[in-house]
Amino acid sequence: MSKRFFCRLLQKSSYSNSNYRGIIVTSAHGKVYEYVLIEKAGLKNINQSNLQFGFTEGLSPTMAALILSEVYSEINGKDLLFITKLDSQKAFDVVNHQILLDKLYYLGVDIEYWDVIEDMYNGHITSTVKWQGDASLSFSIDQGVRQGGILSLHLYKQYINELLSELEAHNMGISIGNTYAGCPSCADDIVLLSNDQNEMQEMLNTVYDY
Asked: Which Pfam families does UniProt cross-reference here (predicted)?
């Protein structure tokens, strides 16, 4: 790639608003506050699927890859293996606040801490765009969890957890022995595994509906 072509490509991409996303810059005090809120509200891995390996203490994406390797070894040429890799586009940015709050409520998060999270997300988030030294007026953010926030990782996992639970509850996807292994995930990155083409389509339909 020539330097001139690369510069044109960079200039072109800089004018596309889809190439930008908001991030949160949190103070040290704010980070401590979120860590305490996670502990007090019991949000750390609450009701989390065993196949969710993203942003979880003691787990890593490598373990999700290991499941794929084990499934492949288990089949060992005896059957077909259908693999679908999914990545939700800008997943953290499209979280519906009311659906998220409903999920937390039905999970049994203490109402005191639920109120704190509700106060953080319902009508209290604003953003400003800075461009070439100028700043826009602030505007409200009505969806998404704050990219880069400590709390956001745990909130997103709860937002997506119902999908993983539904796939497992309906036994959609492959198992190793009696252990379900149909949808190893790392936050918004999900791999669907099945040895049946029709079943894979059912899994995709479920993901699409969700």
From this structure: RVT_1
Query: Considering its fold, how many domains does the chain have in total?
Result: 1
Domain housing 123: 5-209
Query: Residue 82's beta-bridge partner residues?
Result: 194
Report whether pLDDT(57) > 90.
Answer: no
pTM of the model: 0.79
C-alpha–C-alpha distance, residues 120 and 142, integer Å: 11
Among the listed residues 179, 170, 168, 177, the one whose alpha carbon sits nearest the alpha carbon of residue 190: 168
